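Q&A log
Question type: sequence-to-structure
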Amino acid sequence: MGIRRARSVRPRPLRVERAVVYAPITPARLEEALADAGLDAGTIGFVAAMEDGIARGVLSDADLTLARLIGRPTTPIADALRAGVDAAPVTV
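Response status: OK
Response body:
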């Protein structure tokens, strides 16, 4: 049996079998839900702080520092993930 060349397989869109609804939650309710799920106080504080930062837009930074450091435009995450999937060896 020889080596088979992997063929590219396009990923199928993610299908969710039920409605997904955005429901805003207060920081206090988030902390309560995390505690109910069994997380310890340190982890609850960490997750709550991350959520707060995301809500304030800290991940939407359009600073060009990284692009200047690497000498090229940055790659959007969707493009990087697509390239990784396309490059992954798949045999069928």
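Response note: The helical segments are 27-36, 41-55, 65-70, 77-87.
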